[in-house]
Design goal:
Blueprint lengths: L3 H10 L5 H4 L3 H22 L1 H9 L21 H7 L20 E4 L9 E4 L1 H17 L7 E4 L10 H10 L2 E4 L5 H11 L3 E4 L1 H13 L11 E4 L8 H11 L2 E8 L3 E5 L7 E4 L4 E6 L14 E7 L7 E10 L14 E3 L4 E2 L4 E3 L2 E3 L1 H9 L4 E12 L2 E10 L7 H16 L4 E5 L14 E3 L5
Parallel strand pairs: 3-4, 3-5, 5-6, 6-7, 17-20, 18-19
Antiparallel strand pairs: 1-2, 7-8, 8-9, 9-13, 10-11, 11-12, 12-14, 15-16, 17-18
Helix pairs in contact: 3-4, 6-7, 9-10, 10-11, 11-12
Length: 452
């Protein structure tokens, strides 16, 4: 029979997918990261002509990296370089490939929302790694063998929730793939099978709730206990998370990743609006967006530079992700030693722009709009230039039952926008359900000044 101390220890360890790595002291974690970085850069130098050429041109060899501080000397890569290298052999990945092409077993590509898609090669081991990353995420969010998980996404060439599917199976969940079903059929199937969890973009989660309500089904009565979001920052934005949780009557969790990088960050059950970096598999650096100076102190936003460990086919070393993040000023109550990001991914360096001399992040507008309960879930922001003056238009929809309060709603919205973003807006009220609805990543922010 177990003694009480062993029982408490067992309960504690049941919170973690890998209790050894997730609770490894930061000092030991840094030692592990350095060893993995050395192994990763050596693999890339020896096996990838792209990386060998990049490092030789910079006068760097793997042996020059003798400490974590030396990593900052290693050249960064960015998405444009990955697109360019695809023009070389071997087709279609280019000479960044670090394994014989015969060892590539899985093809994925980026969504192409910011340009030409980047093709991602994975070996069998790489794809198993994806599943392991996601197992950390799902376990931290409370997924267990007792869950019946619905995947309402179109299974295609984008990475989307492919790895989440395999990780849920790895944990022992029952997985229901809802790929070819339309939204109504997905809702009916979730209700019929009494699913306990599902995963989608925040936009689609809200869209499913709206569709269910039109069908006469209260989303809260379906029985969902947890939802994992990805693809957009919405689940780390308080007003958006609140909307989703109120509609579905359950916990909502965020996750972040990218095709080129992997599933690198996750929200746990203890710290809403905070993201753990999976530091056993990824090295995250934060740089000042203007000077490139490393940022170690908390609460100072900067650009994320990230390295993925253990990947064979297409190494990802010091990738300039353009994601804007900031360190939190505390450790998480969950007991994981992995560091936290405050507010998750705040936005993208590409999207944070000056309007009328004020730095604006689209996520700040979303926080305000989604905080006004009388508005629908959809909105659009259009930035243009009239002569030499920036002009910003916000398109919204008012829920039909609140049309009589239009003036009061618009006044409150303008005030909140002014307080939160320091800007005034031309607000256009569009008929309910006339703005675009999105199934995957929404495209709500459009800066047309570049085209004028």
């Amino acid at each position: 029979m177990k003694n009480p101390t062993e029982e408490v220890q067992g309960m504690a360890e049941d919170r973690y997918w890998n209790p050894i790595l997730e609770r490894l002291p930061q000092e030991r974690l840094k030692e592990l990261q350095f060893k993995k970085f050395k192994r990763t850069i050596s693999w890339a130098y020896e096996n990838s002509p792209f990386y060998r050429r990049l490092y030789r041109e910079a006068g760097i060899e793997p042996g020059d990296i003798r400490s974590l501080e030396d990593i900052k000397r290693v050249p960064k890569i960015e998405k444009g370089m990955l697109r360019e290298v695809q023009q070389r052999d071997p087709f279609p990945y280019g000479d960044i490939l670090a394994v014989p092409i015969e060892e590539v077993t899985t093809f994925r590509q980026t969504s192409g929302t910011t340009g030409t898609p980047v093709y991602q090669a994975e070996t069998w081991e790489d794809w198993e790694l994806w599943s392991e990353w996601w197992a950390y995420i799902l376990y931290a969010q409370g997924y267990r063998k007792t869950d019946r998980v619905f995947l309402p996404f179109g299974y295609n060439i984008f990475v989307a929730f492919w790895a989440a599917h395999y990780a849920a199976e790895k944990i022992g969940c029952e997985v229901i793939p809802g790929g070819v079903l339309d939204t109504q059929a997905r809702i009916l199937k979730m209700k019929e099978l009494r699913c306990s969890a599902f995963m989608a973009t925040p936009t689609y989660v809200l869209g499913m709730a709206e569709t269910a309500t039109k069908m006469g089904i209260d989303p809260k009565e379906i029985g969902i206990r947890r939802i994992t979001c990805a693809g957009e920052p919405g689940a780390s934005i308080p007003s958006t998370k609140k909307r989703i949780e109120e509609r579905w009557g359950c916990r909502v969790f965020d996750h972040v990743g990218a095709t080129e990088i992997g599933a690198w960050g996750f929200e746990c059950e203890e710290s809403p609006y905070m993201l753990h970096i999976n530091e056993a598999f990824f090295l995250v650096e934060i740089e000042d967006m203007e000077t490139g100076e490393p940022i170690e102190e908390p609460n100072r936003p900067g650009k994320m530079i990230i390295t993925t460990f253990d990947r064979l086919a297409k190494p990802c070393i010091r990738f300039d992700s353009k994601d804007v993040i900031k360190w939190a000023d505390h450790q998480c109550a969950c007991g994981r030693s992995f560091r936290l990001l405050d507010g998750g991914v705040i936005g993208r360096a590409d999207d944070i722009t000056k309007v009328k001399g004020v730095l604006l992040a689209p996520s700040a507008i979303e926080e305000v709009v989604r905080g006004v309960g009388e508005l629908s879930d959809e909105f659009e922001v259009i930035v243009t230039k009239k002569g030499d003056i920036d002009d910003i238009t916000l398109k919204i929809e008012i829920r039909p039952e609140y049309e009589t309060k239009r003036d009061e709603i618009l006044k409150r919205l303008q005030t909140e926008l002014r307080i939160k973003t320091n800007l005034g807006y031309n607000i256009e009220v569009h008929p309910y359900h006339s703005l675009p609805r999105y199934d995957v990543k929404a495209k709500r922010f459009k800066d047309l000044r570049k085209h004028s």
